[in-house]
Amino acid sequence: MTRPRLTERILAARVQRAMQGRVRQRRTITRRDGVRYEVDGRWLTNFCGNDYLGLSQHFAVVDALQNTAARDGAGACASHLVCGHFASHDALERELADWLGAPRALLFGSGYLANLAVMQALLTEDDVCVQDRLNHASLIDAARLAGCKLRRYPHLDPEGALRQLRTVPEGAAMLATDGVFSMDGDVAPLRELSLVARVQQALIFVDDAHGVGVVGPEGRGCVADAGLDASGVLQLATLGKALGGYGAVVLGSDDIIGHLAETARPYIYNTALPPGQAASSLAAVKLARRDHWRREKLQSLIAHFRSTALFRDLPLLPSTTPIQPLMCGDEKRAMAITTALEAQGFWVPAIRPPTVPDGRSRLRITLSSLHTQAEVDSLVDALSWARDAVEMGYSAGTAVA
C-alpha cells in the first residue's frame, strides 16, 4: 500500500485555491488610531473590524488592562480550577450575568472554545443538535466533535427547525442558532425558535457573539430583544466584538453552568484568560452599560449608510445590525472591488467561499460608533465608483490610474 503524501496533498489544495481565487493572506498592522489602521506602510480607514462600540482603545479599558497586569502579571498561568481564577475573572462573570439577566456566567478563552465546551459537555451520540444552516463554523464543528446527530434547517426557518427535531424523537435535543449571523447581519427569530424548543423539550442555545452590546434594550443582545427570560436560555456572549477585548462567556442556569465548569474539557484543560484581559473587559462592560450614546450613534450611522448605499443601487442584504454585506457574486469580482477600494484608502476585505456559499461572495462592511458620517459618505462614494469601474471591465490598476 502506498500512502498519499501530505505535502503533495497540501500543494494540490493550494493550487486549487489559487485557481479559484480563494487564497487567503494575512495583513500586518503596524499602528492604529481609532478606525485608521497603518497596513503595509499605508493608512486605511477600517470598515471590516468588529469593534462596534469603539471600546478596544478606550483609555479606561486600556488602563484596566495595564494596571491589573502590573499587579497580577501578564498571564493566569493555570486553568481556572487549578490556580488561575483571579478576582478580575470572578468580577467579570458576575457583571455579565447581572447585565444579561442570567443566573450565572462562565468565562472561556474564546467563543470557539466555548461552543465546543457546551456541546461536548451536554450532548452524546444518542442526542441531536438542530442548527440553522448559516450558523457559525464553531457551532457546526462543536456538534460534530460531540458525536451527536447534527441536523440543519433552512436559514431563519422555525418550521424547518421543528421538522428536524421531529425526525429524531429519541435522546436529548439542543436547538442552536446564532443571534446575529456574522456574514449576513440578520437576526434569528428567537421567539419562534424558543417556542419550537419548548414544544420539543429541547434546550435552546444562542451564540450571540455579534448581538451583545449592540442589539436589544441597553445592548443586552438578541435574547433580551426577543423578550425571552435569560434564565431559561443558554447563551454565549463574546468579549472580542462590541466589548473590544478577547474571550467569551457562557450564561445560563446554575445547574448547566456548574456542569460545564466541572466537565467541559475546553474549560478544565485550558489556561484561564490573563487577569488583565478580564479586568479590561469588565471596564468595557461597564462602559457598554452606561454609554447608551454609543449604540444610538451606531444605529444612526447604520441607517445613514443603508439609505445612501441603496440610493446608489448598491446590492446590500437586509440588515439592521453593524454588519452590512454588499453582494458581489463570484470571487474575482469581489476581489476586484476590494482592491479598488483599498486604492481609495478603505479596508474592506472580500469574503469568499468556503466562508460563504459559492456564488455568494461579498464585502462584509462593518460600522463602528468611532466612524463619522463623513467617513461613511466617503465609503459609499468609493463603493459606487469601484462597482462601476469593475462592471466596465477595468482592472483595479487601470481604474486607479
How would you describe what is shown here?
The protein has 401 residues and is an alpha/beta fold. The chain folds into two domains: 22-53 and 292-400, Alpha-Beta Complex (Aspartate Aminotransferase, domain 1); 61-290, Type I PLP-dependent aspartate aminotransferase-like (Major domain) (Aspartate Aminotransferase, domain 2, 3-Layer(aba) Sandwich), CATH 3.40.640. 45% of the residues lie in helices and 17% in strands. The chain has 16 helices and 14 strands. The protein has a seven-stranded mixed beta sheet, with helices on both faces. A four-stranded mixed beta sheet has the order 1-2-3-12. Helix 9 (221-225) links the parallel strand 8 (203-207) and strand 9. Helix 5 (111-122) packs parallel to helix 6 and helix 7 (158-167) runs parallel beside helix 8 (190-199). The longest helix is centred in the C-terminal third of the chain and has 20 residues, at 292-311. The relative contact order is 0.15.
Give a topology summary.
Layout: H1 6-20, E1 29-33, E2 36-39, E3 42-46, H2 59-72, H3 80-84, H4 87-100, E4 104-108, H5 111-122, E5 128-132, H6 137-146, E6 149-153, H7 158-167, E7 173-178, H8 190-199, E8 203-207, H9 221-225, E9 234-238, E10 248-252, H10 254-263, H11 265-268, H12 275-290, H13 292-311, E11 323-329, H14 331-343, E12 346-347, E13 350-351, E14 361-366, H15 373-391, H16 396-400
Parallel strand pairs: 3-12, 5-6, 5-7, 7-8, 8-9
Antiparallel strand pairs: 1-2, 2-3, 4-10, 9-10, 11-14, 13-14
Helix pairs in contact: 2-12, 4-12, 5-6, 7-8, 13-15, 14-15
Structure characteristics:
Aspartate Aminotransferase, domain 2, four-stranded mixed sheet, 17% strand
